[in-house]
Amino acid sequence: MNIVWLLGALCLTLMGLALLMLHRGWQQARTEQVLGRLGQQRPQPTTNRRWGALERLFLRAGLSMPRERVGLVFVSWLCALALGQLLGGWRLALLMLLAPPLLGRLYLAWRYRRRVRRMVQQLPQMLDQVVRSLQTGRTLGDAMLRAIETSPEPLRGSLARVQRNVQLGVALPDALDDVAELYEQEELRILAIGVRVNHLYGGSASELLGNLTKVIHERELIARQLRAMTGETRLTAVVLAVLPLAMAGYILAVNPQYLMSMWLDEGGRRMLIVAFVMQLLGCLMMWRMLRSV
Q1: What CATH number does the domain containing 205 carry?
Q2: Are 162 and 179 in contact (CB under 8 A)?
Q3: Considering only CA atoms, which of 154, 131, 10, 262 is closest in space to residue 146?
Q4: Other residues' Cβ atoms within 10 Å of the Cβ of residue 10
Q5: pLDDT per residue over 5-32, tens digit each?
Q6: pLDDT tens-digit series, residues 240-281
Q7: Shared-domain flag, residues 90 and 132
Q8: What was the pLDDT predicted at 1?
């Protein structure tokens, strides 16, 4: 009976998604017709109000959000939930419910950290090029835009947002503030503050950017020294996180009946679940502590 209700709910969900996609396609077609008659091009918004937070995660990771495949991904997720419920009961269904969003979030966070680290490494070279352009007589805005065009990826793709906003009439300090707020990186915030101060009060932009390059180099050197000094602490945290899981895997490989007897018993099952939850909480706490180091 539960299977019948589950399949019925899945069919209704698929029907609702089909109607929603049909309605959106009809609206999009009408909008394109109206804009075509007016001779205008539809603007490409940076973010969507409906998918703002999710699109921000994709944008920070250097990916484009697959809006056209959201329905397909959602249906696949529902099918995985239904398959987990049929094959393994509520435990496997719960795993199918939590695992895909968690793994996707971790993947986006990993790409974001790697991308920001490479951007910070490429930023001093771009600022040196801006200084050389300023010495040839160019303005700060023109020198910044030309340096963005010749910068390598991922810095060029990230700062293309600045170039697009400036071409639309946004002031250069405001465009840099927007990028610094998006990526939440101190070096970009320092650059935005420096350009804003120069824009408001004047002064030598070449000297300002040169000092900023020195600050970025010093921050990178201090960060490397800190990682070297805290290497033992980070390694200890990794060992403490992996050791219980490795011991459980070893026991399952050598003597599986030892843990299976606990799992078949009601009290033992509760102890294993509590131990697993405590292990997850401990790993989360150590990860937060390492991020603050």
Answers
A1: 1.20.81
A2: yes
A3: 131
A4: 15
A5: 555 665 666 666 566 666 666 666 565 5
A6: 888 888 888 888 888 888 778 887 888 888 888 888 888 888
A7: no
A8: 47
198 and 140 in contact (C-beta within 8 Å)?
A: yes
What are the backbone dihedrals phi and psi of residue 45, each rounded to the nearest 5 degrees, phi first? -70, 145
Q: Closest Cα to residue 205, out of 197, 48, 37, 12? A: 197
Q: Which two tokens stand for residue 118?
A: 């490479």
Write down how long the chain is. Answer: 293
Does residue 157 contact residue 189 with C-beta atoms inside 8 Å? no
DSSP assignments along 72-83, one per residue: HHHHHHHHHHHH
The residue type found at 103 is L
Find, among 194, 198, 200, the residue nearest to 180 by Cα: 194
Pair 221, 121 in one domain: yes
| Owning domain of residue 258 | 230-292
Angle between helices 186-201 and 140-149 (to 10 degrees): 150
Query: Which tokens go with 245?
Result: 């899981």
Please give the tally of structural domains in the chain.
3
pTM of the model: 0.65
Q: Are 154 and 114 in contact (CB under 8 A)?
A: no
If asked whether residues 123 and 212 sit together in one domain, one would say yes
